[in-house]
Amino acid sequence: MTQSGAYLAPGVYVDEKNDFPGIVAEVATAVPVFIGYTQKAEHEGKSLLNRPHRIDGPDEYRKYFGGAPTPKFEIRRKEAGSSQEAVFSLQGQGYCLHRQSGRYFLDYSMRLFFANGGGPCYVVSVGSYQESITLERLAGGLEPLRQEREPTLVAVPDAMLLESGAECAALQRAILEHCGRHARNRFAILDIYEGPEGGDDPDRKAIRAFRDAIGTACLGHAAAYYPWLKTTVVGSQDVGPENIGNADLLQALIEEELGIPRARIDENVMRQSKVFRLSMEDIRKRLNLLPPSGAMAGIYALVDRTKGVWKAPANVQVNAVNAPAVMVSDSEQENMNVSPDGKSVNAIQSFPGEGVLVWGARTLDSNSADWRYINVRRTASMLEESMRLACGSYAFEPHTADTWGMIRSALSNFLLGIWQRGGLAGAVPDDAFSVRIGLGQTMTPEDVQAGTLRVSVLVALARPGKFIEIAFQQQMQKS
Q1: For 121, left (φ over 0), alpha (ψ -120 to 50), or beta?
Q2: Distance of alpha carbon 454 from alpha carbon 331, whole angstroms
Q3: Could you report the per-residue pLDDT of 222-261, keeping only the tens digit for each?
Q4: Pairing of strands 321-324, 229-231
């Protein structure tokens, strides 16, 4: 047989035809990338600094990025008139712990992520524990992500350790710009800056400051959560004498308490000491106060995996958490959920008998009827990216009705599968989606002449049912 199709010799010839339309592969939705500081960053002797690296679990994280930091605290006598509570008292004198150095959030946030259902993710290490946390380094971690397609969520818990709220806001605006303009299939999980210590905001000034500073660009590509969380990820085995900066004073106090010569004080003796025990409990309590983005990234992954990206990541229990750092009242929740500027902040609340639950599902663009809800924005991003990648295989195909029909069939079959799994609203497929392509529908003869192929896809995305009203009234007795 020649290239023209003419047969030159007798025989039986088989000509295979493609009867099935192309397949649209659903892209991954809950693959977060964490940007921050790590103990190390290397793989087989090669540096991973400022390079996105995929890991599948906590063991791989420790293998490539090391363990937790060793923050230092200094024991000081409590000064008269100080509002800080004494950690312990000895001979009538109160003592407090003051933080010195070494506070980083990424390692602990990764623990929260995996404890709440997290799986595969990416890590971008921007520096080691010997380096200061700076806006330039954290913002620089966004640049290498432009070359990665898989990550769909962005979390930067170390942003909470920047020196000022203004620096944190500048970084968060850069994250919004990255997700909304450079990588439109990405969604940011933002924390509320409450200062380096965090977790103490009786007047909710942190929320007002966040709303004032976050700007107005790309708000539909992010959600913010409040308050910080009292977690359990830092255990007693994670703290020890190495966390005390002035070890000589610690030993002197234990010597005074137990009446044991300093030369005989080892770690076993220390653990019998009230001074040591209360100091370690205070350090662990303070290290366990964490921003919620790590936990929320895990919850997004869990909900996507078990229910689908179209399920709102709300009314879900937060694991490895004892309580929110502050209790949010119903009236405060109303202001957080709906505000004049539309910048909703999702609450994490504690409910008797139910534990700590995520109690909000809005993006920062709450005034938008299109992108008000997290699951709507993220479902749309998944559909757009999946269909974009699938349509790429038809580039340079003949601009004819046959090609249009193949594209229509591929996209329709994909959307039908999403609808059957509950991802689109509608009693029948025609109510849930439509795919249009063709002359007189989406294209003009001039479009075809110019090589422009236009497809119009309409989808009905499911909004979460947040407000459930039960009409209750009495009726007259009938018997």
Answers
A1: beta
A2: 48
A3: 999 999 999 999 999 999 999 999 999 999 999 999 988 8
A4: antiparallel
Cα–Cα distance list, 352 to 355, 358, 407 (Å): 6, 14, 52
| Alpha-carbon gap, residue 235 to 400, rounded angstroms | 65
User: DSSP label at 424?
Assistant: B
Q: Which residues have a Cβ under 8 Å from the Cβ of 3 and sit 6 or more positions away?
A: none
pLDDT tens-digit series, residues 146-197: 989 999 999 999 999 999 999 999 999 999 999 999 888 899 999 999 865 6
- Tokens 């898989």 correspond to what residue? 150
Q: Residue 222 burial by CB count (10 A; 0-12/13-18/19+): exposed, middle or buried?
A: buried
Q: Return d(Cα 409, Cα 412) in angstroms, integer.
A: 5
Decide: 463 and 311 in contact? Cβ < 8 Å. no
Residue 465 pLDDT > 70 = no
Q: CA 197, 199, 202, 203: dihedral to nearest 10 degrees?
A: 80
Which tokens in the block code for residue 377? Answer: 């924005």
Residue 145 and residue 185 in contact, taking contact as beta carbons nearer than 8 Å? no
CATH of domain 32-69+104-228+291-375: 3.40.50.11780
Residue ranges per structural domain of the chain: 32-69+104-228+291-375, 397-478
- 3 state SS of 51: coil
Q: What is the pTM of this model?
A: 0.90
How do residues 200-224 score in pLDDT, each as one tens digit?
A: 666 678 899 999 999 999 999 999 9
What single letter denotes the amino acid at residue 141? G
Please, what's the b/e burial string for 466-475 (b: 16 or more CB within 10 A of its CB; e: otherwise)? eeeeeeeeee
Which of 447, 444, 419 is CA-nearest to residue 433? 419
Residue type, 125: S
Closest by Cα among 73, 75, 124 to 103? 73
Evaluated on CA atoms 241, 247, 251, 257, the torsion sign reads negative
Give the helix ranges, DSSP H, for 259-400.
267-270, 274-287, 293-306, 330-337, 374-391
